[in-house]
Structures are given as C-alpha cells and as structure tokens.
Amino acid sequence: MPIYLVLALVLAAVFPAAAEAQAQEFRVLQLNLCHSGVNTSCYNGAATIQEANTVITARQPHVLSLNEICRNDLAQLAPAMGNGFSTFAPARRPDGTPVRCTNGDEYGNGLIFRSPATGTVFSGQYATQDSGSEKRVYVCAEFADLVGCSTHLSTAGNVAMAQCKAAIALLRDRAVAGKQVVLGGDFNLKYAPLFGPNVQDCNVAPFFRKGDGSVQHVFAANVGFVRTEVVGMRNTDHPGLHVVLTRP
C-alpha cells in the first residue's frame, strides 16, 4: 500500500472529521419556576428567581426555556444569560385576555437566548384546549439558522398529546429544511408511562427527544446530542432539565 495512503488512513483514525471537530457545545436549560403565586404549595417568591439565576450561571445555557413565570421575571434572569435576546407569551383566558400572576403581571412562557442577535418572534394558542381557565400557548424566536421555542401543555393527557403534536408540526417544515430547532417545555406528558399517553408518540423525524424522567422535555432537530442532566431545585416543584447538544 502506498505510504501516502497509509498516512491518510492513520490520520483519519486519529483525528475526527472536520465537521465533527468544528462542532460546538450548545446547551439548553428548561425551567418551570411555579412563580405565578397562585399555587402556594410550590411558590417561593424571590428565592425561586435567586435559585434559577444560580443554576443558569452554573450551566451557562445558550437557550433558556421558561414556564410558569411572570413577564417581569425575564428582566431578573436576563443578566445571568448575558442580557441576550428574550421574549415572552402570556397564557390566555377563554375570553382572550392574559392570565395574571398574583402580583398583576402577565403569566406564561418565556425564552432567553445568550446571543444578542434579534430573533423573529412568533407565538400562538393551540387549537385543541381543555375545559380549564388557562388556554395553553407556545412562544418561539427564529434566527438565521436556529429556531428556539418554549411551551407548557395541558394537564389533560389527550389534550396535551394533541398540543404536543401541533407544536412539532408547527416546526417540522423548518427542521426538514435543515434548520436547527429546539423546543423545550413542561409537556405534562411522560415517557412510557404505566397509564396515559406516551410523549414519545408525538416525536417524528428529524426530531429527537430528551427528558427529565417526568414531564419536562426538549425536542431537537439537526443538532448532535451529548448528555442530559437533571438539576435538583428546592424552590419550585420541578427540577431543571439541562440538555447539552452540539451545533456545527
């Protein structure tokens, strides 16, 4: 075998492909902060925001997905995210008005990106809803090569499954076209439960799903996967879900 071919084979074995070598870690952190003040069993006021900031600072996520927050919480969490781009969508009442935290602030879902680039925001209410007083919504921001979204789904299993499928359908064309997509949230659906719908049933190619062993999940497409970390938290009723991905 020619010496140059032997050398090429050795180099290929020792060094990863150029695309792999250039891949960069991309971290997504999902938090449900129970910060409306309505559910007193898990509401801990300012201590929740302080703990969230500690977790954010330690993990340094590129995308932060937030559920059960008040709109003004974004300003308190943004410095730990480098004051990057953020957006918020309130949950809605049946009459279309925003759900409110006990302090009067709008209540819903938020996103904070470490990048200062300005994204194009789109949000909405799911067509399928349960009979409760909170109509579930999603919020997304789209950049040149990335779409990031956050959502919080119904507590009624079949309704949550319909909403989950709708969220994936909303993003699938972008993913099929090659755009990197991450969708985080409290889906109120579990993986392989003994009873009720399985969150994996709303997953379709090219997406994959990573979860916290309970109801929080991150769906992603056109990115690599490194690891999942479940982060214990004292001041809310959900752990943090930290999913480490890679982007080319």
TrEMBL record:
Pfam families membership: Exo_endo_phos (PF03372)
Domain Endonuclease/exonuclease/phosphatase: 54-192
Keywords assigned by UniProt, alphabetized: Endonuclease, Exonuclease, Hydrolase, Nuclease, Signal
InterPro entries the record matches: Endo/exonu/phosph_ase_sf, Endo/exonuclease/phosphatase
Gene3D superfamilies cross-referenced by the UniProt entry: Endonuclease/exonuclease/phosphatase
Domain of life the protein comes from: Bacteria
GO molecular function, one term: endonuclease activity
Segment forming the signal sequence: 1-23
Protein name: Endonuclease/Exonuclease/phosphatase family protein
The organism of origin for this protein: Nonomuraea jiangxiensis
